[in-house]
Amino acid sequence: MCRNIRTLFNFDPPATDDEIQAAALQFVRKVSGFTKPSQANEAAFLAAVDDIAAITRTLLGALETTAPTKDRDTEAAKARARAVQRFSTGAKA
């Protein structure tokens, strides 16, 4: 489940609310063990997602770095290249 959580700090453009919300949802899913909570747990689940998203926004706003910002397209290309290398079969003809 947590493979979908991506680094959100130090990117240009900065992380969007949708990206923060998606990361919070994945975190709560992982911690709770629920992909989709029951009706009895739905309110607590959704409240946790909102709380985690708010805390994440606060964290991202407070962090500082001297490193240059990362470009999303460049980082995505690197991730794709790593995936190709990791998942290639390496079969020889």
Structure, explained:
The radius of gyration is 17 Å and the shape is flat. The protein has a two-stranded parallel ribbon with strand order 1-2. It has one domain. The protein is 60% helix and 4% strand. The chain is mainly α and 93 residues long. The chain is built from three helices and two strands; from the N terminus they run βααβα. The protein starts with 10 loop residues before the first strand and ends in a 6-residue tail after the last helix. Helix 1 crosses helix 2.
Task: Offer a concise description of the structure.
Helices cover 60% and strands 4% of the residues. The protein has 93 residues and is mainly alpha-helical.
Discrete helix count: 3
Poorly predicted tracts of residues:
none
- Rounded radius of gyration (Å): 17 Å
What would the principal axes of the Cα set say about the shape? flat
Strand content: under 5%
Question: What string gives the helices and strands in order?
Answer: EHHEH
Distance between the termini: 35 Å
Instruction: Determine the structural class based on helices, strands and strand pairing.
Output: mainly alpha
Number of strands: 2
Determine the fraction of residues in helical runs and give it as a percent range.
55-70%
State mean pLDDT (0 to 100 scale): 89
